[in-house]
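Board notes, transcribed. Complex of a protein with adenosine-5'-triphosphate.
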Amino acid sequence: MLLEVRDLHVEFHTRDGVARAVNGVSYGVDAGETLAVLGESGSGKSVTAQAIMGILDIPPGRITGGEVVFQGRDLLKLREDERRRIRGAEMAMIFQDALSSLNPVLTVGDQLGEMFTVHRGMSRKEARARAIELMDRVRIPAARERVRQYPHQFSGGMRQRIMIAMALALEPALIIADEPTTALDVTVQAQVMELLAELQREYHMGLILITHDLGVVADVADRIAVMYAGRIVESAPVHDIYKAPAHPYTRGLLDSIPRLDQKGQELYAIRGLPPNLMNIPPGCAFHPRCPLARDVCRSDEPPLYEVSPTRGSACHFWRECLDE
Ligand SMILES: Nc1ncnc2c1ncn2[C@@H]1O[C@H](COP(=O)(O)OP(=O)(O)OP(=O)(O)O)[C@@H](O)[C@H]1O
Ligand code: SF4
Ligand SMILES: [Mg+2]
Protein backbone atom coordinates (compact mmCIF):
# COMPACT_ATOMS: atom_id res chain seq x y z
CA MET A 1 0.00 0.00 0.00
CA LEU A 2 1.18 3.49 -0.86
CA LEU A 3 -0.89 5.06 1.92
CA GLU A 4 -2.66 3.40 4.78
CA VAL A 5 -4.71 5.34 7.29
CA ARG A 6 -5.35 3.23 10.39
CA ASP A 7 -7.96 3.96 13.03
CA LEU A 8 -7.55 7.73 12.78
CA HIS A 9 -9.27 9.91 15.38
CA VAL A 10 -9.57 13.69 15.17
CA GLU A 11 -11.43 16.02 17.53
CA PHE A 12 -12.06 19.75 17.56
CA HIS A 13 -12.11 21.50 20.90
CA THR A 14 -14.37 24.52 20.66
CA ARG A 15 -16.14 26.76 23.12
CA ASP A 16 -19.35 24.76 22.63
CA GLY A 17 -17.77 21.38 23.26
CA VAL A 18 -15.78 18.64 21.57
CA ALA A 19 -16.71 17.80 17.99
CA ARG A 20 -15.69 14.25 17.16
CA ALA A 21 -15.02 14.77 13.47
CA VAL A 22 -13.07 11.58 12.71
CA ASN A 23 -13.81 8.46 14.74
CA GLY A 24 -11.60 5.57 13.69
CA VAL A 25 -11.19 5.98 9.94
CA SER A 26 -9.16 3.34 8.13
CA TYR A 27 -8.61 3.40 4.40
CA GLY A 28 -5.80 2.87 1.94
CA VAL A 29 -4.76 3.63 -1.59
CA ASP A 30 -2.19 1.97 -3.81
CA ALA A 31 0.01 3.44 -6.53
CA GLY A 32 -2.04 3.83 -9.69
CA GLU A 33 -5.30 3.50 -7.78
CA THR A 34 -8.14 5.97 -7.28
CA LEU A 35 -10.09 5.90 -4.03
CA ALA A 36 -13.26 7.97 -4.00
CA VAL A 37 -14.38 9.23 -0.60
CA LEU A 38 -18.09 9.96 -0.36
CA GLY A 39 -20.38 11.27 2.33
CA GLU A 40 -22.60 14.20 3.21
CA SER A 41 -21.31 17.55 4.35
CA GLY A 42 -19.62 17.31 7.75
CA SER A 43 -18.86 13.58 7.58
CA GLY A 44 -15.12 14.17 8.06
CA LYS A 45 -13.81 13.76 4.51
CA SER A 46 -11.74 16.93 4.47
CA VAL A 47 -10.52 16.64 8.05
CA THR A 48 -9.19 13.14 7.29
CA ALA A 49 -7.41 14.53 4.22
CA GLN A 50 -5.95 17.41 6.22
CA ALA A 51 -4.61 14.98 8.81
CA ILE A 52 -2.94 12.95 6.04
CA MET A 53 -1.39 16.06 4.50
CA GLY A 54 -0.36 17.50 7.85
CA ILE A 55 -2.33 20.71 7.35
CA LEU A 56 -4.92 20.24 10.08
CA ASP A 57 -5.88 23.31 12.11
CA ILE A 58 -4.18 22.44 15.43
CA PRO A 59 -5.67 23.81 17.67
CA PRO A 60 -8.70 23.64 17.64
CA GLY A 61 -8.08 20.27 15.94
CA ARG A 62 -6.32 17.42 17.71
CA ILE A 63 -5.33 13.98 16.44
CA THR A 64 -6.15 11.67 19.31
CA GLY A 65 -5.26 8.34 17.78
CA GLY A 66 -4.28 6.33 14.76
CA GLU A 67 -1.55 6.11 12.14
CA VAL A 68 -1.00 7.54 8.68
CA VAL A 69 1.47 5.17 7.05
CA PHE A 70 2.86 6.58 3.82
CA GLN A 71 5.53 4.66 1.93
CA GLY A 72 6.25 2.69 5.08
CA ARG A 73 6.55 5.62 7.52
CA ASP A 74 3.96 6.80 10.05
CA LEU A 75 3.66 10.48 9.15
CA LEU A 76 2.11 11.33 12.51
CA LYS A 77 5.46 10.53 14.15
CA LEU A 78 7.53 12.82 11.91
CA ARG A 79 8.78 16.30 12.77
CA GLU A 80 7.15 19.29 11.06
CA ASP A 81 10.19 19.96 8.84
CA GLU A 82 10.14 16.32 7.67
CA ARG A 83 6.45 16.58 6.88
CA ARG A 84 6.98 19.81 5.00
CA ARG A 85 9.52 18.07 2.77
CA ILE A 86 6.99 15.34 1.96
CA ARG A 87 4.21 17.82 1.24
CA GLY A 88 4.32 18.94 -2.35
CA ALA A 89 7.19 16.63 -3.29
CA GLU A 90 5.70 13.26 -2.35
CA MET A 91 2.06 14.08 -1.73
CA ALA A 92 0.10 17.05 -2.99
CA MET A 93 -3.39 18.36 -2.56
CA ILE A 94 -5.85 19.99 -4.94
CA PHE A 95 -8.58 22.13 -3.41
CA GLN A 96 -11.99 23.22 -4.58
CA ASP A 97 -11.17 26.89 -4.70
CA ALA A 98 -8.12 27.65 -6.84
CA LEU A 99 -8.49 31.39 -6.48
CA SER A 100 -7.86 31.30 -2.75
CA SER A 101 -5.14 28.64 -3.03
CA LEU A 102 -3.06 30.45 -5.64
CA ASN A 103 -1.10 33.56 -4.81
CA PRO A 104 -2.89 36.55 -6.41
CA VAL A 105 0.22 38.73 -6.71
CA LEU A 106 2.46 36.22 -8.47
CA THR A 107 2.13 35.19 -12.12
CA VAL A 108 1.22 31.57 -12.64
CA GLY A 109 4.62 31.11 -14.28
CA ASP A 110 6.39 32.32 -11.14
CA GLN A 111 4.23 30.10 -8.92
CA LEU A 112 4.76 27.02 -11.01
CA GLY A 113 8.44 27.90 -11.46
CA GLU A 114 8.91 28.24 -7.70
CA MET A 115 8.22 24.52 -7.33
CA PHE A 116 11.35 23.88 -9.40
CA THR A 117 13.62 26.63 -8.08
CA VAL A 118 12.82 25.95 -4.42
CA HIS A 119 12.49 22.15 -4.45
CA ARG A 120 14.74 21.19 -7.35
CA GLY A 121 17.33 23.97 -7.33
CA MET A 122 16.75 24.86 -10.97
CA SER A 123 17.65 28.21 -12.49
CA ARG A 124 14.82 30.67 -13.18
CA LYS A 125 15.15 30.03 -16.88
CA GLU A 126 14.91 26.27 -16.53
CA ALA A 127 12.01 26.65 -14.11
CA ARG A 128 10.15 28.90 -16.55
CA ALA A 129 10.57 26.29 -19.28
CA ARG A 130 9.23 23.59 -16.96
CA ALA A 131 6.28 25.81 -16.02
CA ILE A 132 5.34 26.19 -19.68
CA GLU A 133 5.72 22.44 -20.20
CA LEU A 134 3.36 21.81 -17.27
CA MET A 135 0.79 24.28 -18.56
CA ASP A 136 0.88 22.49 -21.90
CA ARG A 137 0.52 19.22 -20.04
CA VAL A 138 -2.74 20.36 -18.42
CA ARG A 139 -3.84 21.76 -21.80
CA ILE A 140 -3.84 25.46 -21.13
CA PRO A 141 -3.87 27.04 -24.59
CA ALA A 142 -1.08 29.50 -25.47
CA ALA A 143 0.95 28.51 -22.40
CA ARG A 144 4.01 30.44 -23.62
CA GLU A 145 2.08 33.72 -23.42
CA ARG A 146 -0.21 32.95 -20.51
CA VAL A 147 2.65 31.97 -18.23
CA ARG A 148 3.05 35.71 -17.57
CA GLN A 149 -0.54 36.18 -16.41
CA TYR A 150 -1.97 36.32 -12.91
CA PRO A 151 -4.50 33.83 -11.47
CA HIS A 152 -7.46 36.22 -11.78
CA GLN A 153 -6.88 36.44 -15.54
CA PHE A 154 -7.85 32.78 -15.94
CA SER A 155 -11.31 31.23 -16.00
CA GLY A 156 -12.33 28.93 -13.15
CA GLY A 157 -11.65 25.81 -15.20
CA MET A 158 -8.22 27.05 -16.32
CA ARG A 159 -7.32 27.99 -12.75
CA GLN A 160 -8.22 24.50 -11.65
CA ARG A 161 -5.88 23.18 -14.36
CA ILE A 162 -3.12 25.37 -12.92
CA MET A 163 -3.79 23.84 -9.49
CA ILE A 164 -3.46 20.40 -11.03
CA ALA A 165 -0.20 21.49 -12.68
CA MET A 166 1.13 22.72 -9.32
CA ALA A 167 0.19 19.44 -7.68
CA LEU A 168 1.86 17.43 -10.44
CA ALA A 169 5.01 19.54 -10.68
CA LEU A 170 7.23 17.42 -8.46
CA GLU A 171 5.57 14.16 -9.55
CA PRO A 172 4.23 13.14 -6.14
CA ALA A 173 3.28 9.54 -5.47
CA LEU A 174 -0.08 10.60 -4.01
CA ILE A 175 -2.58 13.33 -4.82
CA ILE A 176 -5.55 14.20 -2.66
CA ALA A 177 -8.21 16.11 -4.58
CA ASP A 178 -10.85 17.62 -2.29
CA GLU A 179 -13.90 18.37 -4.43
CA PRO A 180 -11.66 19.60 -7.25
CA THR A 181 -14.49 20.46 -9.62
CA THR A 182 -17.33 21.50 -7.32
CA ALA A 183 -16.97 25.22 -8.03
CA LEU A 184 -17.06 24.76 -11.84
CA ASP A 185 -19.79 24.65 -14.47
CA VAL A 186 -21.02 21.16 -15.26
CA THR A 187 -19.35 20.86 -18.68
CA VAL A 188 -16.06 22.23 -17.37
CA GLN A 189 -16.30 19.84 -14.39
CA ALA A 190 -16.25 16.86 -16.71
CA GLN A 191 -13.23 18.14 -18.66
CA VAL A 192 -11.18 18.86 -15.55
CA MET A 193 -12.10 15.50 -14.04
CA GLU A 194 -11.12 13.70 -17.22
CA LEU A 195 -7.78 15.48 -17.27
CA LEU A 196 -7.09 14.58 -13.65
CA ALA A 197 -7.98 10.93 -14.25
CA GLU A 198 -5.79 10.80 -17.34
CA LEU A 199 -2.77 12.29 -15.57
CA GLN A 200 -3.29 9.99 -12.59
CA ARG A 201 -3.04 6.97 -14.90
CA GLU A 202 -0.11 8.35 -16.81
CA TYR A 203 1.95 9.18 -13.71
CA HIS A 204 0.74 6.02 -11.93
CA MET A 205 -0.13 8.05 -8.84
CA GLY A 206 -2.41 7.14 -6.00
CA LEU A 207 -5.42 9.47 -6.02
CA ILE A 208 -7.84 10.14 -3.19
CA LEU A 209 -10.81 11.87 -4.71
CA ILE A 210 -13.23 13.51 -2.28
CA THR A 211 -16.50 14.28 -3.97
CA HIS A 212 -20.24 14.65 -3.61
CA ASP A 213 -20.69 13.60 -7.20
CA LEU A 214 -21.50 9.91 -7.50
CA GLY A 215 -21.80 10.29 -11.25
CA VAL A 216 -18.09 11.11 -11.53
CA VAL A 217 -17.08 8.29 -9.23
CA ALA A 218 -18.37 5.49 -11.44
CA ASP A 219 -16.11 6.63 -14.27
CA VAL A 220 -12.84 7.27 -12.48
CA ALA A 221 -12.65 5.41 -9.16
CA ASP A 222 -11.39 1.90 -8.40
CA ARG A 223 -12.66 1.82 -4.85
CA ILE A 224 -15.16 3.77 -2.78
CA ALA A 225 -15.07 4.62 0.90
CA VAL A 226 -18.34 6.00 2.26
CA MET A 227 -18.09 8.17 5.38
CA TYR A 228 -20.77 8.92 7.93
CA ALA A 229 -20.22 10.86 11.18
CA GLY A 230 -16.46 10.43 10.96
CA ARG A 231 -16.51 6.71 10.27
CA ILE A 232 -16.19 4.54 7.19
CA VAL A 233 -19.54 2.80 6.84
CA GLU A 234 -18.83 1.00 3.60
CA SER A 235 -15.64 0.33 1.66
CA ALA A 236 -15.62 -1.65 -1.57
CA PRO A 237 -14.58 -1.87 -5.21
CA VAL A 238 -16.65 0.59 -7.19
CA HIS A 239 -18.48 -2.06 -9.25
CA ASP A 240 -19.63 -3.95 -6.16
CA ILE A 241 -21.17 -0.82 -4.73
CA TYR A 242 -23.00 0.11 -7.89
CA LYS A 243 -24.30 -3.44 -8.27
CA ALA A 244 -25.67 -3.57 -4.73
CA PRO A 245 -24.76 -1.41 -1.74
CA ALA A 246 -24.13 -3.28 1.52
CA HIS A 247 -25.06 -0.34 3.76
CA PRO A 248 -28.39 1.52 3.92
CA TYR A 249 -26.58 4.87 3.89
CA THR A 250 -24.76 3.98 0.66
CA ARG A 251 -28.09 2.93 -0.78
CA GLY A 252 -29.55 6.29 0.18
CA LEU A 253 -26.67 8.12 -1.51
CA LEU A 254 -27.04 6.06 -4.69
CA ASP A 255 -30.78 6.60 -4.76
CA SER A 256 -30.24 10.34 -4.61
CA ILE A 257 -28.37 10.46 -7.97
CA PRO A 258 -30.50 12.02 -10.67
CA ARG A 259 -31.01 9.44 -13.41
CA LEU A 260 -31.54 10.28 -17.05
CA ASP A 261 -34.04 7.46 -17.50
CA GLN A 262 -36.24 8.73 -14.68
CA LYS A 263 -36.75 12.32 -15.72
CA GLY A 264 -39.53 14.10 -13.93
CA GLN A 265 -39.53 11.69 -11.00
CA GLU A 266 -39.01 13.20 -7.61
CA LEU A 267 -35.46 12.79 -6.40
CA TYR A 268 -35.04 10.54 -3.40
CA ALA A 269 -33.33 12.17 -0.44
CA ILE A 270 -32.13 10.50 2.73
CA ARG A 271 -34.53 11.61 5.46
CA GLY A 272 -33.30 13.64 8.41
CA LEU A 273 -29.99 15.37 8.95
CA PRO A 274 -26.41 14.29 9.67
CA PRO A 275 -25.76 14.02 13.43
CA ASN A 276 -24.34 16.70 15.67
CA LEU A 277 -20.69 15.70 16.06
CA MET A 278 -20.71 16.87 19.69
CA ASN A 279 -23.43 14.35 20.41
CA ILE A 280 -23.24 11.40 18.04
CA PRO A 281 -26.14 8.93 18.53
CA PRO A 282 -25.21 5.71 20.41
CA GLY A 283 -25.07 2.39 18.60
CA CYS A 284 -25.09 2.90 14.87
CA ALA A 285 -24.80 6.65 14.28
CA PHE A 286 -27.09 6.32 11.26
CA HIS A 287 -29.97 4.72 13.18
CA PRO A 288 -32.21 7.83 13.49
CA ARG A 289 -32.32 8.03 9.69
CA CYS A 290 -32.16 4.38 8.71
CA PRO A 291 -35.17 2.60 7.19
CA LEU A 292 -33.81 -0.77 8.40
CA ALA A 293 -33.05 0.30 11.99
CA ARG A 294 -34.17 -1.86 14.93
CA ASP A 295 -33.35 -2.15 18.64
CA VAL A 296 -29.83 -3.55 18.39
CA CYS A 297 -28.90 -0.60 16.13
CA ARG A 298 -29.67 1.84 18.93
CA SER A 299 -27.38 0.12 21.43
CA ASP A 300 -24.58 -1.72 19.59
CA GLU A 301 -22.13 0.05 17.37
CA PRO A 302 -21.61 -2.10 14.28
CA PRO A 303 -17.98 -3.04 13.52
CA LEU A 304 -16.85 -3.02 9.88
CA TYR A 305 -18.12 -6.49 8.95
CA GLU A 306 -16.24 -8.36 6.24
CA VAL A 307 -18.68 -8.73 3.35
CA SER A 308 -15.94 -10.12 1.10
CA PRO A 309 -12.13 -10.02 1.22
CA THR A 310 -12.24 -6.63 -0.52
CA ARG A 311 -15.38 -5.23 1.00
CA GLY A 312 -16.56 -4.04 4.40
CA SER A 313 -19.84 -2.72 5.76
CA ALA A 314 -20.57 -1.23 9.17
CA CYS A 315 -24.16 -2.41 9.26
CA HIS A 316 -25.52 -5.23 11.44
CA PHE A 317 -27.91 -6.06 8.61
CA TRP A 318 -25.63 -5.77 5.59
CA ARG A 319 -26.92 -9.09 4.22
CA GLU A 320 -30.44 -7.79 4.19
CA CYS A 321 -29.30 -4.60 2.52
CA LEU A 322 -27.41 -6.53 -0.20
CA ASP A 323 -30.47 -8.67 -0.94
CA GLU A 324 -32.86 -5.76 -1.23
N1 LIG B 1 -11.41 24.29 11.91
C1 LIG B 1 -12.40 23.65 12.52
N2 LIG B 1 -12.86 24.03 13.74
C2 LIG B 1 -13.85 23.38 14.37
N3 LIG B 1 -14.47 22.30 13.87
C3 LIG B 1 -14.08 21.87 12.67
C4 LIG B 1 -13.04 22.52 11.93
N4 LIG B 1 -12.88 21.85 10.76
C5 LIG B 1 -13.79 20.84 10.78
N5 LIG B 1 -14.50 20.85 11.92
C6 LIG B 1 -15.55 19.88 12.31
O1 LIG B 1 -15.34 18.69 11.60
C7 LIG B 1 -16.51 18.32 10.89
C8 LIG B 1 -16.16 17.61 9.62
O2 LIG B 1 -15.61 18.55 8.73
P1 LIG B 1 -15.11 18.16 7.27
O3 LIG B 1 -14.60 19.45 6.71
O4 LIG B 1 -14.17 17.05 7.32
O5 LIG B 1 -16.43 17.72 6.53
P2 LIG B 1 -16.58 17.22 5.03
O6 LIG B 1 -17.00 15.80 5.06
O7 LIG B 1 -15.33 17.55 4.27
O8 LIG B 1 -17.81 18.10 4.54
P3 LIG B 1 -18.04 18.91 3.17
O9 LIG B 1 -18.63 17.93 2.22
O10 LIG B 1 -18.98 19.99 3.56
O11 LIG B 1 -16.71 19.46 2.72
C9 LIG B 1 -17.27 19.62 10.72
O12 LIG B 1 -18.63 19.41 10.62
C10 LIG B 1 -16.92 20.37 11.98
O13 LIG B 1 -17.76 19.95 13.03
S1 SF4 C 1 -26.75 -0.99 11.77
FE1 SF4 C 1 -28.97 -0.70 11.86
S2 SF4 C 1 -29.27 1.53 11.84
FE2 SF4 C 1 -27.18 1.14 11.20
S3 SF4 C 1 -27.27 1.10 9.01
FE3 SF4 C 1 -27.50 -1.02 9.68
S4 SF4 C 1 -29.70 -1.35 9.87
FE4 SF4 C 1 -29.37 0.86 9.74
MG1 LIG D 1 -14.89 18.92 2.80
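Residues 54 and 71 are 15 Å apart (CA to CA). The chain has a mean pLDDT of 93.
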